[in-house]
Specification:
By secondary structure, the chain is mainly beta. The chain is built from one helix and six strands.
Length: about 140
């Protein structure tokens, strides 16, 4: 099964801002977490088994431009690689249609009982982005 692209709208809250009036870097991870929840909820609709548990093994973020309180913020999420026990999730935050932040997260399948890594579903395939259009500038 090819994993689908997902898009998540984010409401910037006043408490997300720092003294400079833009979103503090500490909140970006929360935005990516919310987007990942949307991504896996979408997967859950298309499979007949529970979504496997996972842990975050690595996160790499690049902030390209600031995000401000009144910006329209959208996070695109997809899977760029599926291995035996790990997968790579990609995110792009758009602010008013402009790329603001990129993130690459490596997730590892996790068995809650044994507390060890475990295999991911063998039928999962990376996302095909050929039909995905970035959000419009508004």
């Amino acid at each position: 099964m090819q994993l689908q692209h997902s898009r998540t709208d984010i409401q910037v809250r006043f408490s997300d801002l720092d003294l400079l009036g833009h979103v503090s870097n500490s909140y970006y991870a929360q935005y990516f977490d919310l987007a990942r929840v949307t991504f896996f909820r979408q997967i859950a609709k298309h499979i007949k088994y529970p979504v496997p548990s996972y842990v975050v093994a690595s996160v790499k973020m690049d902030m390209l431009r600031e995000i401000r309180f009144d910006d329209r913020v959208v996070v695109d999420t997809w899977c760029s690689r599926v291995g035996t026990k790990s997968m790579t999730i990609e995110h792009v935050i758009y602010a008013n249609g402009e790329k603001a932040t990129t993130c690459q997260t490596v997730l590892v399948g996790f068995d809650r009982d044994t507390r060890n890594s475990t295999a991911l579903p063998t039928d999962w395939e990376a996302t095909d982005l050929s039909g995905v259009i970035p959000p419009s500038k508004t």
